[in-house]
Write a sequence for this structure.
């Protein structure tokens, strides 16, 4: 137990030294941002926003899990903006203005991008219409040509045991593999 | 020398394929049996030839011949033997050879079937299969040759060529660059081969479909012949997808199994159309309906297979696992255009011959419900296709790239998947031909009530989210219906034959493998759905920075950070490995080791999570950062309820497919006979 | 997708209109994918190609239009604070700028690719960069040049054509060699 405690102590000392060094190094330009970070937003708050964003450096990997340094910087930026009291929407708008639409997890809903959202439902609708049409045609066709044809088919495959056996035999041979 | 042999074998295989195509065409035109037989043997011969080439490439990889560019690019001294072998498919050129090899294996297997009864298909099956094979071999030989070597030119420059340029001396690097670390995981041994197997084996049903179109044999012969091929193709594709998700879950370190990445979708699309095909062919077999639709589906599936390969290899979409950009994109594109337009043209030519023979009599009949199932699969396919393609279109028209991410896919496909589950619950109970609300209701009411009881139980148990309740209801319904179907059949059989229940079950499944295998697949899907619901609807996560001795809480779990070790390994990695203890409800349950591997040779890092996995939930810890923060070490933890059911379901799913695809005993003898005759003829 | 139109059964034959529409849609899709492929394969702007005019908003808020610098030589450098090799070349770039900027015939532009402002400013301060540097707003400039990574350096000659491309860190000698040659040319 004490070993861990000691190690912990040593660790925190090291980190303290490093921390101080880091602060000194970054210096002047960073002063405002350091001050602004007083009420630090938690990682979870940052990730909640980062989850739906994408950085061009690692395509198709959400920002919250992307391991590159560029993405780590982006997450810090989100944290900073959150600390300054920005809303999620404001932050996203800022990122879009800086880096383009591709930072968003989905194309913004305007102009050509509406196609993304409209085309799949429309084609599904077209599919439904075609299906309805097929059903209707078939049902209309039923009294005209259907009955004998389907009856033969049905009886051959289901009712007559001999025919069924024959069919099975045939199929087995045909299956071939 | 080995490289020359490998390359030579490829060239001979290419020439043999071209010859086979010509012999097949000529034989079909003149009805010249000897030419056909010759073409058939040419198809059979491609496999040993490409095998030789593969053996050569593996020998180069294992022997560490870094003067070969491919070997240099994908292997290194550090790599153990199994990785050197699997490096065969770790790069563009090698994986194309591997693809061709598997393709040739299937082509050879197809030549060995008994052809007497459907000889007229033979030339066209040869032509279609060999055209595909020749295309891939051509790519390997002319564009992506894995056997090219480094040469030192007399003027001091370096060159890459197959044969020594004038005056050049061989250049042998000391070591290779090593395999992409992401591909070094043991999961990667199986995932790509399974996927490729799934891809290539869809070529056979497609070839038979085209053969049926060309010859005008519009009955369901081609479907009966290829049924098992299709199932096998589908089995491998499913296996590839499941293994891929598992690999992503274990290795990629983002807490999930499926990221709707374009490359994943590229493999998913042929699966979707293939699944639709598997269902709709049954309509044609049983009822003689929708012949055209089946043709469209198999053409589409083949086109999507090639398209998927194109997407991953051309660099047209950049993605995590896409191969580097190369010159093969335009060639692939031309091939897709050629085959797709060609087959659609052929289909139109035969359009009027492919009339439905029967009619549909009831909206609740099984064929009607299967058609609905097809509509849903096509709906999901459109969503996927459009999502993958749209960034390209946006870039063309607006000059700006966009991301189409998981939220789009999840939102668009979730209702379709839910509807599919519902259908899965109803369709097995409806009969072919005619089914009425009354007959269906009679079969359905018991499982329906039981499933509602389950949902009420969950509600009482504290689950309030309507989406979760709906999802669980669907899962309960499908599993109850499926089990009830089994139960009814077993009881009936028991009564009739007096067999005990287990025996009855066994015989039942044996008698109608396709049906009962299909039900097992459905059960597998339901279990997988359980896992997916768990992770999609109930996943929680948190991230925090802690000192050694510090802890993070998530739900019932507490994670205590013990220490971090940073060390170098024998195989050229720098590993940062954290040791954390996990407590559930303050009870110690185990130790986890999330880590970050840095690969010196490729300068890449890999995040490997520490996972405590139970049937109830997974506790998934990622080491996010241990260098930059002054406050300590940053961890991200996920709580993934039920996710293990996804893998269990996957196993059940595969088992079901095996049951459905298992060859009948009678079917084996002709194959053995054919093999024998062939051996005799060859000798 | 085009193939939606097919599960049509019954005994009618297919109307030519539907056939035509399916094929138009199909070929349209293939055309689009082909275009995308061409784009993906086009690679960066090639040497000798006319570089379209663009504008850079510097960190100080000044907007620089390259169109105002017609007839001059323009050096465009893409960099990011998270990129190690960029640090290597930063000093050389600044020294090159010191050599030319008094002449007024050469413009240096530092385009900051996918970066965050505080880190980018720190980078500029750390290496004492005095030539105009600014973020690549909406990644428009990098998409126009179709860069593949950072650092990359592009030099545009007096007639507005691309004269030089360097992927990876550049050096003072390399830049001055090219710039001197370009300055000697008459527009």
């Amino acid at each position: 137990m004490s070993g861990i405690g000691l190690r912990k102590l040593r660790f925190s000392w090291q980190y303290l030294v490093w921390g101080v060094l880091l602060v000194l190094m970054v210096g002047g330009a960073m002063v405002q941002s350091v001050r602004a970070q007083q009420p630090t937003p938690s990682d979870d708050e940052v990730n909640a926003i980062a989850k739906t964003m994408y950085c061009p450096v690692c395509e198709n990997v959400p920002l919250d899990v992307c391991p590159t340094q560029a993405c780590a910087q982006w997450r810090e930026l989100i944290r900073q903006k959150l600390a300054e009291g920005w809303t999620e929407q404001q932050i996203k708008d800022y990122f879009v203005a800086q880096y383009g639409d591709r930072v968003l997890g989905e194309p913004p809903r305007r102009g050509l991008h509406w196609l993304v959202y409209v085309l799949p439902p429309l084609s599904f609708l077209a599919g439904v219409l075609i299906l309805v049409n097929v059903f209707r045609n078939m049902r209309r066709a039923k009294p005209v040509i259907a009955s004998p044809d389907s009856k033969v088919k049905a009886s051959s495959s289901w009712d007559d045991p001999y025919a069924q056996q024959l069919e099975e035999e045939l199929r087995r041979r045909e299956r071939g593999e | 020398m080995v490289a020359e042999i490998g390359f030579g074998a490829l060239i001979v295989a290419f020439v043999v394929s071209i010859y086979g195509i010509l012999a097949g065409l000529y034989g079909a035109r003149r009805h010249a049996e000897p030419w056909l037989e010759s073409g058939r043997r040419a198809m059979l011969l491609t496999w040993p030839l490409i095998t030789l080439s593969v053996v050569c490439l593996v020998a180069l990889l294992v022997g560490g011949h870094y003067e070969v560019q491919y070997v240099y690019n994908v292997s290194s001294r550090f790599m153990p033997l199994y990785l050197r072998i699997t490096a065969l498919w770790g790069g563009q050129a090698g994986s194309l050879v591997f693809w061709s090899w598997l393709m040739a294996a299937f082509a050879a297997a197809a030549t060995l079937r008994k052809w007497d009864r459907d000889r007229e298909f033979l030339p066209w099956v040869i032509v279609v299969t060999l055209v595909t094979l020749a295309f891939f071999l051509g790519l390997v030989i002319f564009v992506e040759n894995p056997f090219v070597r480094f040469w030192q030119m007399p003027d001091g420059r370096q060159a890459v060529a197959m044969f020594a340029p004038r005056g050049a001396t061989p250049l042998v690097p000391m070591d290779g660059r090593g395999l992409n670390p992401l591909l070094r995981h043991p999961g990667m041994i199986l995932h790509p081969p399974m996927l490729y197997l799934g891809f290539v084996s869809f070529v056979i049903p497609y070839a038979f479909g085209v053969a049926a179109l060309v010859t005008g044999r519009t009955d369901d012969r081609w479907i009966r012949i290829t049924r098992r091929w299709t199932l096998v193709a589908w089995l491998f594709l499913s296996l590839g997808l499941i293994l891929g998700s598992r690999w992503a879950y274990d290795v990629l370190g983002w807490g999930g199994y499926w990221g709707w990445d374009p490359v994943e979708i590229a493999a998913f699309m042929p699966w979707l159309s293939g699944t639709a095909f598997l269902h709709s062919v049954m309509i044609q077999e049983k009822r003689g309906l929708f012949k055209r639709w089946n043709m469209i589906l198999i053409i589409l599936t083949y086109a999507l297979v090639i398209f998927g390969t194109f997407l991953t290899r051309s660099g047209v979409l950049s993605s995590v696992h896409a191969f580097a950009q190369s010159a093969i994109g335009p060639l692939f594109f031309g091939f897709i255009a050629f085959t797709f337009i060609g087959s659609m043209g052929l289909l139109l030519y035969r359009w009027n011959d492919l009339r439905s023979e029967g009619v549909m009599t009831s909206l609740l009949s099984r064929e009607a419900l299967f058609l609905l199932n097809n509509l849903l699969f096509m709906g999901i396919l459109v969503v996927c296709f459009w999502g993958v393609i749209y960034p390209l279109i946006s870039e063309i028209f607006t000059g700006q790239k966009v991301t189409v991410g998981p939220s789009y896919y999840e939102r668009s496909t979730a209702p379709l998947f839910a509807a599919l589950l519902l259908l899965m619950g109803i369709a097995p109970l409806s009969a072919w031909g005619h089914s009425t609300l009354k007959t269906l209701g009679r079969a359905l009411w018991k499982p329906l009530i039981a499933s509602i009881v389950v949902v009420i139980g969950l509600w009482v148990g504290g689950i309030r989210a309507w989406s979760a309740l709906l999802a669980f209801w669907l899962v309960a319904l499908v599993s109850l219906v499926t089990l009830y179907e089994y139960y009814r059949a077993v009881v009936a059989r028991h009564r009739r034959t007096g067999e005990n229940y287990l025996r009855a079950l066994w015989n039942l499944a044996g008698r109608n493998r396709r049906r009962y295998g299909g039900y097992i697949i459905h059960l597998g899907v339901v279990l997988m759905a359980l896992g997916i619901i768990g992770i999609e609807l109930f996943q929680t996560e948190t991230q925090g920075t802690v000192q050694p001795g510090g802890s993070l809480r998530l739900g019932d779990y507490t994670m205590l950070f013990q220490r971090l070790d940073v060390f170098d390994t024998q195989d050229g990695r720098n590993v940062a490995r954290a040791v954390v203890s996990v407590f559930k409800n303050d009870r110690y349950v185990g130790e986890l080791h999330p880590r970050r591997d840095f690969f010196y040779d490729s300068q890449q890092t890999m995040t490997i999570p520490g996972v405590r996995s139970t049937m109830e939930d997974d506790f998934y810890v990622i080491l996010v950062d241990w260098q930059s923060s002054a406050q300590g070490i940053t961890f991200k933890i996920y709580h993934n309820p039920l996710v293990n059911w996804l893998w269990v379901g996957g196993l059940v799913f595969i088992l079901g497919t095996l049951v459905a695809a298992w060859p009948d005993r009678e079917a084996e003898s002709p194959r053995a006979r054919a093999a024998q005759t062939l051996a005799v003829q060859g000798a | 997708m085009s193939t939606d139109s097919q599960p049509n059964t019954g005994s009618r034959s297919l109307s030519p209109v539907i056939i035509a529409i399916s094929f138009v849609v199909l070929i349209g899709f293939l055309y689009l994918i082909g275009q995308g492929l061409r784009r993906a394969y086009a690679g960066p702007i090639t040497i000798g190609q006319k570089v379209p005019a663009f504008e850079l908003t510097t960190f100080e808020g000044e907007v620089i239009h390259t169109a105002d610098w017609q007839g001059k030589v323009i050096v465009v450098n893409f960099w990011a604070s998270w990129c190690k090799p960029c640090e290597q070349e930063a000093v050389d770039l600044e020294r090159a700028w010191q050599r030319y900027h008094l002449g007024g015939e050469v413009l240096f532009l530092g385009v900051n690719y996918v970066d965050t402002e505080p880190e980018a400013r720190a980078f500029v301060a750390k290496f004492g960069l005095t030539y105009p540097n600014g973020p690549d707003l909406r990644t428009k400039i990098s998409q126009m040049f179709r860069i593949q990574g950072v650092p990359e350096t592009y030099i545009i000659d007096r007639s507005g054509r691309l004269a030089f491309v360097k992927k990876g860190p550049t050096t003072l000698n390399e830049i001055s060699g090219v710039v001197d040659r370009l300055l000697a040319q008459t527009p």
